[in-house]
Amino acid sequence: MSYRVRPDRALDDEVHKAAAHQLGRAMAVLTDRPQGLHEAIHAARKNIKRVRGLYRLIAPLAREFQQRENDKLRAVALTLSGVRDATALIEVSRYLQETATSEDERHALARVCDVLTIRRDRLSKEETDLEDKARAAIVTCGEAIEALKDASFEGGRRDTARLFQKSWRKNVRKAMQALAECCGEAAHAECFHDLRKRSQDYWMHHMLLRDVWPAAMHAKQLEAKLLVDVLGRYLDMSILADVADREPHLFNGSDDHARLLEAIISRQQTAREEALNRARWVFADKPEREARTMKRLWLEAAD
Predict the structure, then answer these.
(1) Is 266 part of a structural domain of the chain?
(2) Please, which contacts does 224-228 make with residues 24 or more away whose CB atoms are closer than 8 Å?
(3) Alpha helices, DSSP H only, in the chain?
(4) In a 10 Å sphere around its CB, with 0-12 CB exposed, 13-18 middle and 19+ buried, how is residue 12 labelled?
């Protein structure tokens, strides 16, 4: 797997290789579409997200490059998000159906899932410029590869260790601040969205630097990914509740609408508690201590 930065190799080569590979995969899947356009878009967005995560890790070394390329890649990912967001609502409705507490609720949520599938298909047909957006994304990824060729990430062993120490400390501090805001009485969906973004960075950074201590880094990576998934489910339920409120006509006046909202309220509370418990464990160490540990592990692995 090439999404890694190995301590026994030159940082410049590793960053170029990892980013170019992910951008190339995004271009390939959008071109070949082995499972159709919508699945290709989903896969490409994940590749783009990984590149942005990598660039945040090395940001102190190339701040202007990171900001410019991050903005470019974030913008193209947003153009591809419409139908994917509608698909995510179908997936969370299936989760609600699978965790139903009665047969009546299960049947109602099955009907909701069918309604959301019809809605997704309608939105897909209305998004007539999706092909153009896919082609534009391929062009943007190609431009990002060219920009990468002109970027330099040179640094000695100790400079690289200090770089990762600084990035790690900053990113964990942001995560802990997001967690604190989620624990407040006035916490809203945006707080949990910010925590999910920071958790995604944490997960990807463990993946990138896993060679410094493979077993421990992999274990923490898995815990961070579970946190990301729970937060994603929590946020998707919030979006589904908003859609149900904005588009009640989807349910034709049936009681499915009320059953859906009841299910969301119940499962969201569970997801919230699970997410906060997982986040407290994932981000249990002090940022300064964890950052120093990463610096030491990098230096030891580089030797």
Answers:
(1) yes
(2) 224/199, 224/282, 226/278, 227/199, 227/203, 227/275, 227/278, 227/279, 227/282, 228/196, 228/199, 228/200, 228/203
(3) 11-32, 37-57, 63-79, 82-98, 103-126, 130-149, 157-183, 189-208, 214-246, 256-282, 287-302
(4) middle
Q: Give dist(CA 13, CA 34) in Å, integer.
A: 30
Q: What percent of the chain has pLDDT above 70? A: 100
Residue 120 within a domain: yes
For the segment 91-114, what is each residue's pLDDT rounded down to a tens digit?
999 999 999 999 999 999 999 999
Residue 5 resides in a domain? no
Asked if residue 297 has pLDDT above 80, the reply is yes
Q: Which two tokens stand for residue 42?
A: 């989903």
Q: Domain residues for 80?
A: 11-302
Residue whose structure tokens are 């624990």: 183
Are 36 and 20 spatial neighbours (Cβ–Cβ below 8 Å)?
A: no
pLDDT at 253 > cutoff 80: no
> Encoding tokens for residue 8?
């026994």
Asked if residue 31 belongs to a domain, the reply is yes
Rounded (10°) CA dihedral 238, 243, 246, 251: -130
The lowest-confidence range among 153-157, 183-187, 288-292 is 183-187
Q: How far apart are CA 230 and CA 274, in angstroms?
A: 7
Count of domains forming the chain = 1
CATH number of the domain bearing residue 127:
1.40.20.10
Pull the structure tokens for residue 277: 């418990």
